[in-house]
Design goal:
Distance between the termini: 9 Å
Number of strands: 15
Bound molecules: 2-acetamido-2-deoxy-beta-D-glucopyranose
Largest sheet: 8 strands, parallel, barrel
Shape: globular
Strand content: 15-25%
Length: about 425
Amino acid sequence: MPQKCYLALAAAAAVASVRDQGAIWSQCGGVGWTGATTCVDGAVCTAQSDNYSQCVPVIATMTASTTVTSASKTTTTSPSNTVAPRPGTLKFVGVNIAGFDFGCTTDGSCTTGAANPPLTQYSGKDGEGQMTHFVNGDGYNVFRLPVGWQFLTNNIIGPVDQTNLAEYDALVQSCLATGAYCILDIHNYARWNKGASIIGQGGPTNAQFAQTWTEIATFYKDTQKVVFGIMNEPHDIPDMNLWAGSVQAAVTAIRNAGATTQMILLPGNDYTSAGAFVSNGSGDALKKVVNPDGSATNLIFDVHQYLDSDNSGTHAECVTNNIDSAWAPLVEWLRANKRQAFNTETGGGNTASCVQYMCQQIAYQAQNSDVILGYVGWSAGNFDASYVLSELPSGSGSSWADTELVAQCMAPKAGAQRGSMS
Ligand SMILES: *[C@@H]1O[C@H](CO)[C@@H](O)[C@H](O)[C@H]1NC(C)=O
Ligand SMILES: *[C@@H]1O[C@H](CO)[C@@H](O)[C@H](O)[C@H]1NC(C)=O
């Protein structure tokens, strides 16, 4: 029986008559192409470059991503970018569990009183129950846990506040208890408060930034399933080479604290835009960042991309699958440089347009899983269900229902459902 996501894709293709639809794997677009631009049921026209689009089977890619997700639940080895996943499988699929970052704005200021832990013991939503549902009910295997820098240090550029770290750690432990990987994300846009506040470029020094990471990495050095997300969404960075130096300081601090094997996510400019990563110089600057042994093992580029009209993640409707504008050039660059990226924020409204474009984006990422590790949806946690990009499941205990976009597209389980139709 057809699932709704499948129907939405098929409906988009149904505007052309059947004889105009491309067979699976046939060309369906590109510069100069005059043939069919839609695909038969079960396939979606997916741009491989500006010059070439192809009818890619949806079922194959979705089924494959589910396979690897469930496989990774039973493995205890830490991830390594020396592992080459098969094309068609994503190693990580996850959800952001937001709340500790509430009150943070793009100028790097964070009102710590507005931090809202997504944990019932702190009067928040049941983040633990959400994560347990996402793993056991949907097949997810990673969560990203945003937190304001000011919350971690209790508003001073100085030592980590142990009381606040313990509060954040309650969420981290809830995440780890599900068996998933847990991304620690300092959600500060490369800044501390307003004005000339950019880390290493007028704001806190690299040493001050590194000190925070030394303390966090010391705390988690023996926890193999944490991932260090150095900084959320730097933007308007005057000098990318200086920023790469700040990122290097954090990487060196984390490794020297004893967290020698875990993944570290390296964030570029332009709100970590996947689409601007190559064209605006983030890749060329960040590829020089290395571990203390000179290698780039488990140094993964952090990229975000939304699907709405201005890539802001603020609109309910989606207008693009980002393949031509972002993923294709990024994938090409990553292969040429033998590196990998992780899409730690993406999302859309619970609308038919987002189901359609998100399914296409995920299918493309899965086809390029040798260089794209996975994606993390924005967002569940302490948002209200009315939030435009809500991925908040409704329910409690062991009974939860997913939002439309999660159920039909983003959850690994959605692929399993569609795979079983064939
Ligand atoms: C598309 O084709 C043109 C002309 O052959 C070529 O110059 C260009 O590099 C191609 N673009 C891509 C993305 O392959
Ligand atoms: C590229 O980076 C510069 C410096 O941060 C910024 O001013 C500019 O807006 C960025 N351009 C694009 C296209 O994102």
